[in-house]
Sequence to fold (679 residues):
Amino acid sequence: MTASWQETQVRPLLGLLAEGSLGQTIRERLREEWGQPVEVTRADLQAASGPAYTLLLVISERWHGLLFQEVNRWSLANGTPWLGLSIEPGCAVLGPCVLPGRSACATCAERRRANAQKQAEEFQAERAYLAQQACSELPPDPASTQARAWLTASVQTILSQLVALEVARFGRDPETMLTYNALLYLDLATLSISRHPFLPEPHCPDCAALPADSAAAVQAAMRLVARQKLAPQTYRVRDLLSLKDRLLARYVDPECGLIRGLTKDTSNLYANFAAHIPLQEGRRQEVGFGRAFNYEQGQVAAIAEALERYAGMRPGGKRTAVRASRRELGEVALDPRTLGLHSEAQYNLPHFPYVRYSDDLVLNWVWGYSFARQQAVLVPECNVYYGLHQWSGERPYVYEISNGCAIGNCLEEALLHGILEIAERDAFLLTWYARLPMPRIELQSARDPLIGLMCERLYHLTGYQVHAFNITLPERIPCFWVMAVDEQQRPDYPYVLCAAGSHLLPEKALINALQELAPIVGSHISLYRQERERARSMLADSSLVMQMRDHALLYCLPEAFERLAFLYQTPQTQTFAEAFDGDKPPAHADLRADVLDVMARYLRSGIDVIAVDQTTPELALEGFCAVRVLMPGMLPMTFGHHARRCYGFKRLYELPYELGYAARPLTDADLNPYPHPFP
Fold:
């Protein structure tokens, strides 16, 4: 261990760039403890050579973004740590202490702060105004003048003490500093101090250096290894609940957090949480939902889903390195047509937001791993990262959502749950587009009493009767479509709401579906009353179904229920024993064996499983792995009737015939023309 300054009695060489009375107070405090600091000017930072400071301190009585940016870049270029203190309206901000090569930088902190703001536009406008003030382009700012008025002797003393304590911690071990990857706020009105940790920003223009995406890296990352499960029929290797405090400390902070905050939903039928993850300097927000039977479990589930959303939006763990057309790349590149395109009629629509695909279209490609080919393949970047176009501005050729994105405690976990999600959506959409009268499951035949309790609770609290349909397909991944139907036909209540669920255990798959269904029922009662006329417009004109929420809203109408008659009036019924007793769910002690079992079912059907690693540095800190699973030939979930992708799928045309539901293979003309009811 390196000896501290106090132990060696070696005084640090402190550089000080400071202004005003606050700067003088801190200067005197430093002089008392460590001797006269070296006075630094902005011009000194431009010099080719100068003193090799142990630590540079920058003190400003205002927010001076340009100065701090200059110092930050100088620090990174010269390998010199620095610590800044600035006064903003209402508060003093100390930090971060930038340790080049070891910590996040000041630009990371500023980006995290900008993201976390609830009033993003106001924050950016204030920043721009303060920047102009700092450059003396405007008269003195009343807010800055007021901030200086708050700099009483007591405030200056507190700030000088904080700086001195941080300098001392720096001498002992820089990573013990309160400003290591964190900011300290001093409220100038109450004198309360708060600490706000943040994570390095993988897209930081000043300090980030993402590795280039490569086939070799994918080959290495996608090696499946043995993983001991928590129990034979528990398909996880770690209990997130035991990590709750760590996850909250790592990811959640209202000022700088990757997750801005968590919302506890006490109005729902179950213990639900929402985790709010801001993006694009706060202009966009993704939400991770945690649906559970207790609030602690719901909290950690919401955090995990928010991290999954974050990883799926754009590359954060590697830099895309291939841009070409498929014709140029050849067979190493996946044929995008196998993932499903829009129809020619859709591409011809006026103002259609997606460009027509051809093999000559130049795209960004990322490396994934094909488990059928047992090798790395190139996949269109826009099929992997569903929010990328919002940063790049480039029009994708196809609509994508988070379908197949999954987070896990290891690669194997993420792979399994990505496959399960694709299986669920494919089964739901195939049932819908082919209008398959899949069997109704007798709920009372379930061995798990939780199923009956959940249905009874839903009926008791809302009056909705639950109906469940077995939409499991030949690969035998248990999937269910559930309906909550208002069989009392109350005039101000949605008539029907739908959801789906999957799992390797049949009864758990149904429980998952019911957990998805319950909050939808709760939220759509008031929504339907507010937007009933809009729903009627969508019933008359399917093109008005434009976004996710429209799909469920449309089928709240009693008049739309006839579109679900093919399923609701199915003549087939099954007990759980009749439906699944011949199946043996994977129950190995090793999760890898379960994953290989499930993948083999699809590989035998001619469906490849392709995985793209989406893990970002932030996720890796807590041992998480994120993937995007792509399964060419499986139906992709879409929202907005204009964006549906259901044409050209051999599976959709042939499977209803093979299962005995159709007299011949289907054609495009046979497909259900209406928007699906998936929520």
Observations:
- The radius of gyration is 29 Å.
